[in-house]
Amino acid sequence: MSNHITIKDIAKALGISTSTVSRALSDAWDVKRETREQVLAMAQKLHYHPNLNAKNLQNKRTGTIGIIIPEFVNSFFPNVVLGIQEVLYNENYHMFITQSNENRGQELDNLRLLQEHNVEGIIMSITNEGGNEDAYKEAMDHGMPLVFFNRCPKTLAAPKVLIDDSLMAEKAVGHLIDTGRRNIWHLAGPINLEISAMRAEGYANALRKHGMEPDGKAVTAGIFIKDGQEAMERLIGQGVELPDAIFCFNDPVAIGAMKALKNAGKRVSEDVAIVGFSEGSMATVVEPQLTTVLQPMKEMGREAARLLLDRIQAKRPVAPRTVCLDARLNIRASSSPQ
Predict the structure, then answer these.
(1) Rounded-to-integer distance, Cα 324 and Cα 181, Å
(2) Rounded to whole angstroms, how far apart are CA atoms 23 and 40?
(3) pTM of full prediction above 0.85
(4) Prior bond of 317 cis (ω within 30°)
């Protein structure tokens, strides 16, 4: 027997109209009891199952939320997705997860794919390449609810969930200054990301508050461990005087820098203190353990899901809202006092 039995098959088997079958299955008042029983019996015999997708589309519902994240390599984004799932599961929604692989074109393909699959809304964090703001706006203009987290488009009026990256970067660098470090460098994130600019701003603010200038002490690194390692190896290879501390864009960059320093015979903390950002899963695994900013990853996901459901379920347009979550600095051995 085919796995794709439809109401047409039931109607043909019983010699009645498809509309009668449909009304019988919907328990409509105008269908005779005998007819309803015949329809239900035949549906069971033919192993008929309702097409929930088609039913939801008639009701303008699919019960599915699209997710677009830049990558799965680091633990940050999977943890955010876990928070999203907690809220959506309790509201009987399913997730359609895609990842852009830090590629602008792939992100655009993912956005279109999710729209084609009639998701009810999309939660996303943008690729480090940027450049798809017009596509986000077009999707929203056509009625697709979008919520951004962590990496958010700067110019688009949309719901966002983030932390105060500038403030937390300032606190991280302030901690290095409090431990006696004065020659502090910054391994910065990709130039297209707003959070890179915000963390660089916090770094510069902390130095200036203590009478130091950041000029020439920020080096663009990237996102991954290899980016931090390669950036640190270049500095070492140039023969420049090494700083006594480095504030890194994120934990993977910090771990890469630590690896390069160790390979060059330098001691992390004693020779060069290292501070990361994001509290990845490896922060307490590396030696020495990494001082880093803890972002509330799961709570970020939960808030993003709540914002999206608010927009989906609202009976009238909802003004975009930004949720700024608390974060904290976890101090560990990689930045011990001198």
Answers:
(1) 30
(2) 11
(3) no
(4) no
How much helix, strand and coil, in percent to the nearest 5, is found in the chain? 45, 15, 40
Tens digit of pLDDT at every position of the chain (338 positions): 335 678 888 999 999 988 888 888 877 777 888 898 899 999 888 878 666 555 555 555 789 999 999 999 889 999 999 999 999 999 999 999 999 999 999 999 999 999 988 899 999 999 999 999 999 999 999 889 999 999 999 889 999 999 999 999 999 999 999 999 999 999 999 999 999 999 999 999 999 999 998 888 899 999 999 999 999 999 999 988 899 999 999 999 999 999 999 999 999 999 999 999 999 889 999 999 999 999 999 999 999 999 999 999 887 778 899 999 999 999 999 999 87
Alpha helices in 210-296 (DSSP H): 225-237, 251-263
Give the angle subtended at the CA of 301 by the CAs of 154 and 194, to the nearest 5°: 20
Task: Dig out the tokens for 290 from the structure.
Answer: 């990494």
- Provide the token pair at 87: 């809220």
